[in-house]
Write a structure and sequence with these properties.
The structure is a single chain. By secondary structure, the protein is of the alpha/beta class. It has a six-stranded parallel sheet, sandwiched between helices. Helix content is about 35%, strand content about 15%. The model has no long low-confidence stretch (mean pLDDT about 85). It is built from five helices and six strands. It has helices spanning about 1-20, 45-60, 95-105, 120-125, 160-170; strands spanning about 35-40, 65-70, 80-85, 110-115, 135, 145-150. The chain has one domain: 3-Layer(aba) Sandwich (Rossmann fold).
Length: about 170
């Protein structure tokens, strides 16, 4: 019962912010993308290293890359690009100002590497002013994303990264 009340407030806040921040979508050739935001579940080491490798590859391609991660832990993190349960209010909504700064940046593309409908990372997508918000349709709210890739081929969390990158790099707009 308590969790249902928390979920009600969480999703109500998400819906309000998503409606307020919705913009025109721009799907463009990946070679023209200059800034990329990555929101990911940093709770396991394999995902951290996978996202870090992607960040380095994108930077080597001349892209500006910004990363923000959620660690499902009660331990407080001081890094500005990470948040934990300690940075959530009573109904699970983030309170860390850096998260809203990250979400408010106008990226050409923002990628979501997480798979939980109740993830506080959804707040980034609800507040995003990015040209394109891309995620994997595990159990995501379609109102928060511009494109959700449907798949049943994900075996590990890190497979989300290769799936989304294969999709976005295959788009040719010319």
């Amino acid at each position: 019962m308590i969790q249902e009340i928390k979920n009600y407030f969480f999703f109500k806040q998400l819906k309000e912010e998503s409606a307020k921040n919705r913009k025109n979508v721009l799907l463009q050739d990946f070679s023209k993308v200059s800034s990329v935001g990555i929101a990911y579940d940093a709770s396991d080491y394999e995902m951290i290293t996978t996202v870090r490798d992607l960040e380095m590859r994108l930077k080597d391609q001349g892209k500006n890359v910004f990363v923000f991660g959620f660690i499902n832990s009660d331990e407080k993190k001081l890094e500005p690009f990470l948040f934990t349960k300690k940075d959530l209010n009573w109904f699970g909504y983030p309170t860390k100002p850096q998260l809203f700064d990250f979400a408010g940046h106008e990226y050409d593309l923002v990628l979501g590497f997480f798979n939980d409908l109740n993830s506080p990372l959804n707040v980034i997508f609800a507040n995003s002013k990015s040209k394109l918000r891309l995620g994997v349709n595990y159990n995501q709210d379609p109102e928060l994303f511009d494109i959700l890739i449907g798949t049943t081929k994900i075996q590990k969390k890190k497979d989300i990264v290769s799936l989304l990158m294969n999709f976005i790099t295959s788009i040719k707009t010319q």
